[in-house]
Amino acid sequence: MNSISMRPNVITVCLASACLLSGHVVGNERNTVENDRNTICYGDVGCFVKNNRIFTLDLFPESPEKIKTEFRLFTQKNGEDNMFQILNINDVTSITDSNFDHCRPTKIVVHGFRSSAQIPWMTTMKTELLKAGDFNVILVDWENGANYSYNQATVNTRVVGAVIAQMINLLKDQVEADPKDFHIIGHSIGAHICGYAGERIPNLGRITGLEPSALNYQYKDHVVRLDPTDAQFVDVIHTDGRSLLLFGLGMFEAVGHVDYYPNGGLVQPGCETYSIFSNNPACRHLRSHQYFIDSINSECQFIGYRCQSYRDFKNGDCIPCSDGGCGYMGFHADKAKPPEGSIQVTYFLETGASKPFCRYHYQVKVVCGNTPDWKKEKRASVINLIGTKGQSGEKPLTSSDMNIEPGKSYVFILTSINDLGTVHSAEVTWQQEKTTPLQIHIEKLEIGSGQLNEK
């Protein structure tokens, strides 16, 4: 190979068509590039192309030495909560002398743009994971590659993904860790890092994408972004899928085996008033990891309902659960997988505006009688569901501008912060205007629970 070496065994700018891309076929079947001056190689990490028909940013990713990806190992044996051990790719003893145990499942957590492993949500997730089970928890810190321009951070994700793959392969070779026992969890552009890592690791167990970034990724070739081929199971949570013109930061495109869209995946409760000018313009973007953290040790199951659209879900077309029609959003998503071979299965659910975010779902169907003296009413109402474990308290059933007509049926989705058990009755209160007599006849009131085990 003709090349220019900038640092021995570290950086090579290719001048012959011998450099390989990061595990993908780009340009032709031999993984070579049409213009070799657009390729850079970093020793064992591999070679990376810029400015071609797929990777369109005219930037090289920075070197592993500049990004300085760090792996911080936490286990239940580490003692104090914030004590960690550094796993070093270049020092095998850092692995063999650590508390890493190949018999435990391993959780790897990856942050996004302008962040680090010290950010509170990563620390909180680590703590909740270690409460939930005896795991190897590895927090990946790539702060040096994430704090430049967004476009530079975008291309750096490819190197970080390759370095994570190196670490997993090293753990496999040195201490017999099994790739199927690894679960990589990434937020924002960190979700795509998980994809780049997964494409290099055969039989990787699971990837969870928490609100994958849209800019530079959405509707691009699967080579560029997270996709279902990157692991045996890929689950994704979408919380800010609005257009970039409306300051949306996340993907709305389904990119996993299962994709969860809480509250429709666009606007989250408690974040409605946030904008680019607010104190927290990323409120919706951050909800994804907040939901995931909440799901780890929650008694409430974050049940998602398989549906074609959020409108169908709100219309009650997807409750109750039957025929594999539900899943768990978050940590426990792998406990309710769709049939093998399914990809881009979409689930919808509602959440609360603050912790705890999880809600129990109930479907209420109101069948109005067709009496001759009743034509139409415009009413608002509230309902109180009463079950074997408690009451929901008064919940809005209709909006003030909703017309209630004789002979028609109406379906509503209600949520409760508490599990009501088996709902056996309900109290409906209709708005009563003094000048207008109330003429509403309910012929039937049906209430269905949205529990996962309901058939």
Write the SSE topology.
Blueprint: E1 3-7, E2 11-14, E3 39-41, E4 47-49, H1 64-67, E5 70-74, E6 85-87, H2 93-96, E7 106-110, H3 120-132, E8 136-141, H4 143-146, H5 150-175, E9 182-187, H6 189-198, E10 206-210, E11 233-237, E12 258-262, H7 283-296, E13 303-306, H8 310-314, E14 326-328, E15 345-349, E16 360-368, E17 377-378, E18 381-387, E19 390-391, E20 395-398, E21 403-404, E22 409-416, E23 423-430, E24 442-449
Parallel strand pairs: 7-8, 7-9, 9-10, 10-11, 11-12, 12-15
Antiparallel strand pairs: 1-2, 2-3, 3-4, 5-6, 5-8, 13-14, 13-15, 16-22, 16-24, 17-21, 18-19, 18-20, 18-23
Helix pairs in contact: 3-7, 5-6
Describe the model.
It is a single chain. With 455 residues, the protein is an alpha+beta fold. It folds into three domains: 3-49, no CATH class; 64-349, Rossmann fold; 360-449, PLAT/LH2 domain (Lipoxygenase-1, Sandwich), CATH 2.60.60. The chain is built from eight helices and 24 strands. The strands form five sheets. It has an eleven-stranded mixed beta sheet, sandwiched between helices. The protein has a four-stranded antiparallel beta sheet with strand order 1-2-3-4, with no helix packed on it. Helix 3 (120-132) packs parallel to helix 7 (283-296) and helix 5 (150-175) packs across helix 6 (189-198). 42% of the residues are buried. Residues 1-35 have low confidence and may be disordered.
